[in-house]
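Dear all,

This email documents one entry for the complex benchmark we are building for the journal club exercise. For each entry we list the sequence lines for every component of the assembly. Then comes the predicted three-dimensional structure of the complex as a token string, followed by one or two observations. Please use this as the template for your own entries, and keep the labels exactly as they appear.
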Amino acid sequence: MSTRDMGAQTKPFGPAAAALVAAGAGSFALGVLTTLVEVNTSVKTALTYSKEVGPLSGKVIWASVVYFVTLGVLAAVLWRRNPPPQQIYWVTGILVGLGLILTFPLTWKLFGAE
Amino acid sequence: MSLTDRETWAALHGMIFGALFLLAFAGGFAGLYSLRQAWVTPEGIVERTRRLVAGTWAMSIVAWATVISGSWIVYPWYRSADKTSPKSMLLANPDLAQWHNFGMEWKEHIAWLAPILATSVALVVTYYGADLVKNQGVRRVLIVVLTTAFACAAVAGLFGAFITKAAPVH
């Protein structure tokens, strides 16, 4: 936490940290599932909850579940706490960044997708 | 002049929900960028924060509406095994196949990051309310997160427009 923020802060940072890290977790989950579906046929089949939508159905349902569950759990745990903002920003940035990289089609080829 | 049911849903998905999100970004960005104690009066901070809360929630809801309508209503028509479906038509033409193999594959995934990121921005803005102006570090991070959400939606919207031009859903 910067000195400037510490002096001015009126509410604990925990709930904001929960929202930011949850966004990172949801993004990362979507990236991992997307890549897994591209390289593993059984994962693709397992995540095809809707024949019409295909494996995208499972990927987005689970990414949303990861987002909302992480949000709920972290919000409960961090509600009155003040985790270090810089660490939270880095964790969020890395998770969102990995999510972006893993949802990029050319990345899948690095993991053996055709 | 008329639209089929499918064309109506495709327009609702891309030209109403998607376009609304992209347009609303400018307002959300400007609201967050200018939320500084030196720039706004105390009364202005309260008024601006209310607008920011409403605006970021509107962006979040519209983003969810865009991806849900896109993935669960329009996308099944796009990817139908029918020979006349947009996906079949794109893959049947080597000159157009990359619109699906790269464009649609990227679009259908990256789009889902937009509502997740936008919802977190709305939650944090709502949590801090008028106190956000006292937390400049958080405000700056929210600008980055909201801009990332916009970039994800912009990629999806751009490819959606190009793909629809190459092979529209009828």
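Observations: Chain B has a mean pLDDT of 96. Chain B has six helices and no strands.
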